[in-house]
Structures are given as C-alpha cells and as structure tokens.
Amino acid sequence: MQDENNKNKPKLDLSSNRIAEIEDENLVGLSSLTHLHLSNNSIYHLDAAVFESTSQLQELYLARNLLIQVPLALGKLFKLRHLDLSSNQIRFVALYLHRTFNYDLS
C-alpha cells in the first residue's frame, strides 16, 4: 500500500537507463521534484551545480553507479532526508554529509 503522504509528491525515476553523467542543465525546470531515482546506471560524475534547480528534493537514490566520491552538489540539498549511495566505490565523504538525514554508503 502506498503511503498517503507520498502519493502526490513529484517523482522522477531514471533508474537502469545507462546514464553516465548528469549535467547542470539536465534537471532545469524540475523545481518541485521531491524524489529522484538514478540507481543502476553508470554515473561516474555529477556536476557541482546539477541540483541547483531541485531545491525541494527530499529523497535521492544513486545506488549501483560508479561514483568514487560523494558529489559536492549534494551540499545544497537542504531538504534532503534520504540518500542512497550504496554499491558505489565511494572513497571520500565530505563533512556536510553528516547532516541529519538518512544515508546508505554500503
């Protein structure tokens, strides 16, 4: 059963699309987006300003990609409550990641 609170929240699922890179302009116009699924791609890099137009983002799924560091772009997502970076090759975690939200780096 779907959670009533999540029913009308704007979501975008781009999982399993062989995406390698997300650039600044790719998310322009998605200012009300709250959930973004980018898992199971080949993402190795996210531009530093990629999430500037998605300030409402609350959940971000980047599991099973090729990331080796937590993207600096995440530091501007002040409403982010859940971050999934599992099954990447993360070697560096920036200090801002220790904010009060749930994240998975396994």
UniProtKB/TrEMBL annotation:
Keyword set, alphabetical order: Leucine-rich repeat, Repeat
Segment forming the signal sequence: none
Classification via InterPro entries: Leu-rich_rpt, Leu-rich_rpt_typical-subtyp, LRR_dom_sf
Top-level division of the source organism's lineage: Eukaryota
SMART domains: LRR_TYP
Annotated source species: Gongylonema pulchrum
Name the UniProt record assigns to this protein: Uncharacterized protein
PANTHER family linked to this entry: IG(IMMUNOGLOBULIN) AND LRR(LEUCINE RICH REPEAT) DOMAINS, RE50361P
Pfam family, one: LRR_6
